[in-house]
Write a structure and sequence with these properties.
The complex is a heterodimer. Chain A contains 2 helices and 5 strands; from the N terminus they run E-H-E-E-E-H-E. By secondary structure, chain A is α+β, with helices and mostly antiparallel strands. Chain A has one domain: Roll (SH3 type barrels). In chain A, strands 4-3-2-1-5 form a 5-stranded antiparallel β-sheet. In chain A, a hairpin with a 2-residue loop joins strand 3 and strand 4. The longest helix of chain A is centred in the middle third of the chain and has 9 residues. By secondary structure, chain B is α/β, with parallel strands linked by helices. Among the domains of chain B are: 214 residues, P-loop containing nucleotide triphosphate hydrolases (Rossmann fold), CATH 3.40.50; 156 residues, no CATH class. In chain B, 60% of the residues lie in helices and 7% in strands. Chain B has a 6-stranded mixed β-sheet with strand order 2-3-1-4-5-6, with helices on both faces. Chain B has a two-stranded antiparallel sheet with strand order 7-8. The longest helix of chain B has 35 residues. Chain B is elongated and about 85 Å long. Chain B starts with a strand and ends with a helix. The chains are: A alpha+beta, B alpha/beta. The interface between A and B is large, with 32 and 42 residues. Strand 4 of chain A pairs antiparallel with strand 9 of chain B, so a sheet runs across the interface.
């Protein structure tokens, strides 16, 4: 399961960042708080498979599918 | 002069803090990536804080430098790369006294991760770090207070809690910063238990102890987002906001424009009666009041456009609009982040091209920058307003909320956007060969919704009007004078038998396929210097031709002269597409690094404009 699969208003816990991800993107995500054990809540799914809106800690981010698919999570 | 560096996460209120500390009026807005260039101003340290008498003559001054916001010290977009490279260089500069690290008090944990990275580098270079907890007014709404003394102890650096918006704590910061900047060695970073830990872990511990709970501060934002990002209502709201934006440029401005036009006409009449008959009277009436006056009428519209874009920027909606637009824009090879330069481009292409720096993907940045000039900037506004007033009846619906002329404005803006999207697709296909190995994905932080701060917005509106007059006014005056001279001589005001007419008739064949005579041809050619000249030059010529008509009533003069619908629409089509702005070409050259891109765009858009215009005329006149 990845961040892209989290339904609206549901939460999940980050397991890992996919190793296939571009290194710069992985570093940026880590600096934004995408670390193992962090709780992610999906605030909104947008139309036509547009970016998903998530809450991570004290920030709200929108991630497009190509990157959200590379953040592995486990349901809680 | 010693330097103070101002750094922080994007959209953490740095620019407003910079303005409060320097007295400058740098642009502020509520979306990430407003500051794309380093800005500097002077911070006057308070004399008594430096141990001098309040009336002492030597008031220490510091250069305060505002850096573009960054999430970390590793860049992935052009604006961040500039900030980080220059920041690291400045850290080892002897002239750097203090690093002011601005933290968003409502998003403390993320801000601290970057703040602690900066502190660690500053420590290595024996520099002083001061943490500013900005936006505390948002915390006070929830009755949340932060003990800055204890936080300072844990961080090993001074901490000030302020709100650059409501000025809470600004005096205290000015005094404290003055003291620290003058005796910075006393305030160098101290090693503490917290700042020895990994950044993320330290930020988490501190946020847990001092920050407001995220669910409290984000509750309202998430509720609004559930509506504004809703698959159905979100799209409708977006379209309504955009329609309202373009509609209001026209409808709100009409009373002010009418008043300006009346005032210019009245003043022209007074000056004319005082001067009496003669060449000076003709010059004042035709060149000054007819040429320059007809351009001044449109300044209120530019100010209203700035007001509405400013309201959108300050509210936090722009980031949501970027998110809504991401998927549709990606079909044209653009990013959701392209929306922000595109919208800013409706005010002026130059800052909009700079705003495109925040787009992570080099290819998408390139395509965005090259297509921004197709957005209908404020310089096109006078041309649109003039031609719409001639061609479209002034009819209102829904109790005055929807006006036909206003709707035509929306159509023209939409035409520019659609053209930009088509050109983007073409450019995207053309650059596929040079595609980066992997495009940087769309990741955007959504800022909190905030009520716009009236003072910076007011200055921006004022500035947009004055800058427009300052930039275009002198050139319009000079060109109006030249056009008037060529049109007045050798037969004392007989335009049809003037030097200008001779020149115009020589170039007339070029504009015949658009259904335009030599007068429009001259106005179009001259407006390649700056679009606004079109109105000024036509104003001068028609004023000379219709000396008895209302001096500033250019639209009425064009209507009487019989400008056909087909020619008018062809003219509008031409102005939507043509890149008639030398400053924009220079900015494209500077940002894209190659003359061939900038001048290529100039030539390509000129040819495309001509072809589209000719097609429109042919279709409508058949």
């Amino acid at each position: 399961m990845t961040v892209w699969d989290i339904p609206s208003k549901k939460s999940a816990s980050i397991k890992s960042l996919c190793t296939a991800m571009h290194a710069d993107v992985a570093i940026r995500l880590q600096e934004m708080g995408f670390e193992e054990g962090q709780l992610i809540t999906c605030i909104k799914r947008t139309a036509f498979n547009g970016p998903t809106v998530i809450q991570l800690g004290d920030c709200i981010y929108s991630l497009e599918q190509s990157v959200a698919n590379h953040v592995n999570v486990s349901a809680i | 002069m010693q330097k103070i560096l101002l750094v922080g996460k994007p959209n953490s209120g740095k620019s407003l803090l910079f303005n409060q500390l320097t007295g400058l009026r740098q642009k502020v807005a509520n979306f990430p990536g407003v500051t794309v260039e380093l800005k500097s101003g002077v911070f006057n340290a308070l004399a008594h804080s430096a141990g001098q008498s309040p009336n002492g003559t030597q008031q220490p001054k510091f250069e305060l430098i505002d850096y573009p916001g960054t999430y970390s010290l590793k860049s992935w977009s052009k604006d961040e790369a500039i900030a980080i490279e220059r920041l690291l260089a400045a850290m080892s500069d002897e002239k750097t006294s203090v690093i002011l690290c601005n933290l968003d008090a409502t998003r403390m944990e993320r801000s601290l991760v970057f703040g602690l990275q900066v502190q660690e580098i500053a420590k290595r270079h024996d520099k002083t770090v001061v943490f500013i907890l900005n936006m505390v007014d948002e915390l006070l709404r929830f009755n949340h207070h932060i003990d800055t003394s204890k936080l300072s102890e844990k961080l090993g650096s001074p901490v000030f809690a302020v709100s650059a918006k409501t000025l809470i704590g600004i005096n205290k910061l000015q005094k404290g910063l003055s003291e620290i900047a003058i005796s910075q060695e006393k305030y160098n970073v101290r090693a503490t238990e917290i700042n020895q830990q990994p950044f993320a872990a330290a930020a988490k511990i501190l946020a847990k102890e001092y920050a407001i709970r995220p669910d409290v501060v984000l509750k309202r934002q998430n509720t609004i987002d559930r509506f504004l990002l809703n698959s159905v209502f979100g799209g409708i709201a977006f379209l309504l906001i955009m329609f309202f934006l373009f509609q209001s440029i026209f409808t709100w401005a009409v009373p002010i424009m009418d008043a300006t036009e009346d005032a210019i006409g009245l003043l022209g009449g007074v000056v004319s009666s005082v001067l009496g008959e003669g060449i000076l009277n003709d010059f004042m009436t035709d060149a000054v009041f007819g040429g320059v006056g007809s351009f001044l009428v449109f300044v209120p519209q530019i100010m209203i456009l700035t007001l509405i874009i400013g309201l959108l920027e300050d509210s936090g909606y722009l980031a949501r609009a970027a998110l809504i637009c991401h998927k549709p824009l990606s079909f044209f090879g653009l990013s959701g982040r392209s929306f922000i330069p595109y919208l800013s481009g409706h005010a002026c292409a130059i800052p909009a091209i700079l705003a495109a720096r925040t787009i992570e993907s080099q290819r998408k940045r390139f395509v965005t920058m090259l297509t921004v000039p197709l957005m209908s900037c404020s310089a096109r506004l006078p041309v649109y307003a003039l031609l719409i007033a001639v061609l479209v009846p002034d009819v209102s619906y829904l109790g005055g909320w929807v006006n036909l002329q206003g709707a035509m404005f929306f159509v023209l803006y939409l035409f520019g956007i659609v053209t930009a999207l088509i050109v983007s697709s073409v450019l995207n296909k053309m650059t596929e060969g040079s595609k980066e190995h992997q495009d940087m994905p769309f990741i955007l932080e959504l800022p909190s919704y905030r009520l716009p701060h009236w003072q910076p917005l007011f200055y921006r509106i004022l500035n947009s009007g004055t800058q427009f007059i300052k930039r275009a006014g002198p050139i319009i005056f000079v060109v109006s004078m030249i056009v008037w001279t060529l049109g007045y001589f050798p037969n004392n005001g007989d335009l049809q038998n003037s030097y200008l007419s001779a020149i115009g008739q020589w170039i007339e064949p070029v504009f015949m396929p658009l259904g335009l005579d030599w007068r429009y041809g001259v106005a179009i050619l001259v407006s390649f210097l700056a679009r606004e000249l079109f109105v000024g030059v036509l104003g001068t010529m028609f004023s000379m031709q219709n000396a008895d008509e209302n001096i500033a009533g250019l639209a009425a003069n064009l209507e009487i002269d019989g400008l056909s619908l087909a020619s008018g629409v062809a003219l509008l089509g031409f102005y939507v597409i043509a890149l008639q702005c030398v400053a924009t070409v220079a900015m494209l050259k500077s940002e894209l690094g190659k003359n061939r891109y900038a001048w290529g765009a100039f030539v390509a858009y000129g040819l495309l404009a001509y072809l589209v215009s000719m097609s429109l005329y042919t279709i409508l006149s058949s």
